[in-house]
Amino acid sequence: MDLIDRKLLRELQLDSRRSVQVLGDAVGLSASACHRRIRALEDAGFISSYVAKLDASRLGYTMQFFIEVGLTSQSEGVLEAFELAVAEIPEVLECHLMAGQSDYILRVVCRDHEDFERLHRRLSAQLPGVARIHSNLSIRTVKARTGLPL
């Protein structure tokens, strides 16, 4: 990866909907050279996908929680069962296996308090291996970045 690839990745992180011609102009390439570079970055796995970032509050998701989960065991079977089950819950946007006090931290969205109560009950009652749950309500997002520093 060279300097032009890094510039191209930065530009794509800012707005991947721009045409190849506009992206090429931004990094000093022709449209065809820019297209070849993008394809090579995709093929090499540097670009894993393209997504649309949605406005959660406009879609009714007005609450965001970070939930710390402790499991009954660290065995491979318990970890795998938990991860498979949590992957099926649409409100769970992220699930991270942690080193520290909690086994996992989940980032979830909810529409309101009743929605959160339903989700909390589902997490504590239906997820395998859950020993404890500690929920933290996000009051306001101070910084949210989807791109990586390049």
UniProtKB/TrEMBL annotation:
<dbReference type="GO" id="GO:0043565">
    <property type="term" value="F:sequence-specific DNA binding"/>
</dbReference>
<dbReference type="GO" id="GO:0005829">
    <property type="term" value="C:cytosol"/>
</dbReference>
<dbReference type="InterPro" id="IPR036388">
    <property type="entry name" value="WH-like_DNA-bd_sf"/>
</dbReference>
<protein>
    <submittedName>
        <fullName>AsnC family transcriptional regulator</fullName>
    </submittedName>
</protein>
<dbReference type="InterPro" id="IPR019887">
    <property type="entry name" value="Tscrpt_reg_AsnC/Lrp_C"/>
</dbReference>
<keyword id="KW-0805">Transcription regulation</keyword>
<dbReference type="InterPro" id="IPR011008">
    <property type="entry name" value="Dimeric_a/b-barrel"/>
</dbReference>
<dbReference type="Pfam" id="PF01037">
    <property type="entry name" value="AsnC_trans_reg"/>
</dbReference>
<dbReference type="GO" id="GO:0006355">
    <property type="term" value="P:regulation of DNA-templated transcription"/>
</dbReference>
<dbReference type="InterPro" id="IPR011991">
    <property type="entry name" value="ArsR-like_HTH"/>
</dbReference>
<feature type="domain" description="HTH asnC-type">
    <location>
        <begin position="1"/>
        <end position="62"/>
    </location>
</feature>
<dbReference type="InterPro" id="IPR019888">
    <property type="entry name" value="Tscrpt_reg_AsnC-like"/>
</dbReference>
<dbReference type="GO" id="GO:0043200">
    <property type="term" value="P:response to amino acid"/>
</dbReference>
<dbReference type="InterPro" id="IPR000485">
    <property type="entry name" value="AsnC-type_HTH_dom"/>
</dbReference>
<keyword id="KW-0804">Transcription</keyword>
<dbReference type="InterPro" id="IPR036390">
    <property type="entry name" value="WH_DNA-bd_sf"/>
</dbReference>
<dbReference type="Pfam" id="PF13404">
    <property type="entry name" value="HTH_AsnC-type"/>
</dbReference>
<keyword id="KW-0238">DNA-binding</keyword>
